[in-house]
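Quiz preparation item.
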């Protein structure tokens, strides 16, 4: 992908987000050829927004490769705060995240254990990821295009936490409710079977476009409920056993 194409796609994604619209597709020359190009676009979008990363969302691509996306500092909201949107509904996910206490150098030849990764974190926390699609149908887009768009990341709400040393106390069970009514379609479950799996994989061999996990970063490990949608306005409350509660109030604007 040429430098000019990176610039054009970053401009397009930034404008799409700013204007609150969605894209039906991309011209062929703006589809990133590989993950490296997609990460360059992510960084360029942050630059255009005058933002810095406060953390990353992590997971696996369609073929099982480790991928992720920067979470902008401006997209962080304190639990209990309000979130203003002009959209009539908004996408949300309930997640388990960590906050890193120190940098963790990649170790692809000898993957970290869960205990080693958590020794480099200070807390484990319950969180809500806010999902804002810049593509009308991301599932129909090439994955590198979705990756360039930060995998539809919109915002992040860190909630209650416990010391990272107690991570084995966390149970993937809990609740997710809008205005007191459950929005869950089934029990909480991590798509990889274990919320620690993407964290260990990412710590051991992070994508070159993101680099190693660093002190102070929030690292969120994937949805426990799939992607759900709630109507605006509403008060959204989530909880995970062993961690506690996270709350965000969506208001129209």
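Solution:
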């Amino acid at each position: 992908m040429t430098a000019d194409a990176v610039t054009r796609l970053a401009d397009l994604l930034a404008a799409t987000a700013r204007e609150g619209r969605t894209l039906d597709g991309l011209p062929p020359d703006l589809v990133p050829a590989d993950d490296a190009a997609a990460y360059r676009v992510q960084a360029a979008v942050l630059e255009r927004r005058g933002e810095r990363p406060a953390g990353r969302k992590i997971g696996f691509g369609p073929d099982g490769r480790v991928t992720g996306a920067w979470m902008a500092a401006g997209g962080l909201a304190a639990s209990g705060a309000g979130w203003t949107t002009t959209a009539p509904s908004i996408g949300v996910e309930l997640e388990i995240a960590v906050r890193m206490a120190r940098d963790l150098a990649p170790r692809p030849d000898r993957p970290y254990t869960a205990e080693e990764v958590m020794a480099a974190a200070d807390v484990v926390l319950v969180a809500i990821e806010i999902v804002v699609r810049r593509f009308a149908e991301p599932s129909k887009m090439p994955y590198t295009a979705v990756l360039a768009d930060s995998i539809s990341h919109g915002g992040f709400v860190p909630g209650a936490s416990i010391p990272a040393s107690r991570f084995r106390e966390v149970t993937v069970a809990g609740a997710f409710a809008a205005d007191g009514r459950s929005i869950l379609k089934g029990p909480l479950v991590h798509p990889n079977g274990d919320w620690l799996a993407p964290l260990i994989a990412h710590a051991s061999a992070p994508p070159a476009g993101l680099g190693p996990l660093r002190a102070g970063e929030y690292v969120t490990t994937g949805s426990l409920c799939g992607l759900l949608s709630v109507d605006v306005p509403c008060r959204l409350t989530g909880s995970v056993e062993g961690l506690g509660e996270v709350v965000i109030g969506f208001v129209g604007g």
